[in-house]
Amino acid sequence: MPHTLPIIIHPGFGKTATTTLQNNLFINHPEIECIGRPQGGDAIQFRDNLLRNMDHYDEKKQKEFLQTVMQNSDRRAIVFSDEVFAARIYENQSLANRIKALFPKAKIVFTIRNQYTIIPSYYSNHGRILKKAPRPYRGKQVGFSEWFEYCKTNHTNSYLDFIRYRPIIKIFENLYGRNSIEIFLFEEIVNKNSDFSKKFSDLLGVNTELTLELLKGKKSNPRKSEKMVRYQHFREKFMPGFSFSSFIPGGTRLREDFQNFLNRGKGCSPSITQEHKNFIHQLYKEDNRVLAQDYDLDLKKWGYPL
Prior knowledge:
Elements: E1 7-12, H1 18-26, E2 32-34, H2 42-50, H3 59-72, E3 77-81, H4 84-91, H5 94-102, E4 107-112, H6 115-127, H7 144-153, H8 159-162, H9 166-176, E5 181-185, H10 186-191, H11 193-204, H12 208-215, H13 226-238, H14 251-263, H15 274-294
Parallel strand pairs: 1-3, 1-4, 2-3, 4-5
């Protein structure tokens, strides 16, 4: 299917400012046609269909959607961003093959983050709460050390293996070629916003000043606050399943105000021991060195395991 607009595929990784880019830049820049998160309508069906198993995947319907977008868009670039893609591709490469079939000439953009900081960030928002567990344990919280030790023991099938980055990037290298892949660092998005805005805008061919304005001071999906984590642990231990708002007049409003109070303040910062750091260094140093060399990334400046 011929493409008349430059297309950027942004498959992840999660916790690398993906939500900030999606909610503030991709959806709001007047020169970007956003068909990924957080776009609604037919774009949701397009994303959902892409993730279906073989028996239910409708490639013809996918191409029809893209053709309509191409014909009707007056934007300068199309961005298809969803961090779920990297996680699914980690489990099954067939999704990457589908993306290649739909977007044969796309540019692939990855955002990555120092493993020393992404691990506690992921734990604070996701890892500390048990999800795939029997009912008595589902939703329970687990301490950082316990979670980390479990991931270490099963690291080839855990989050720790997923954020090696290079294996998933290599899949797209094999499909698109290294020259079609760009890697941006979370640390540069956060700390060198002007430089990132220019590089990213040049890649898309869109207005840099607008990109900078849309991202300035923005931060979406931050890690849970220390107060929120402590409160959730207290509720789980002493008042599981109890709803204050059901018994107090105006309880819904009070609950919202209380939630806002809990969400303010210092983010949850689990204690990482030297033993944890040693394991992180050994696990990621080789893949990070290769990425730094292949893509001219200054990972040393930002303290990545090397």
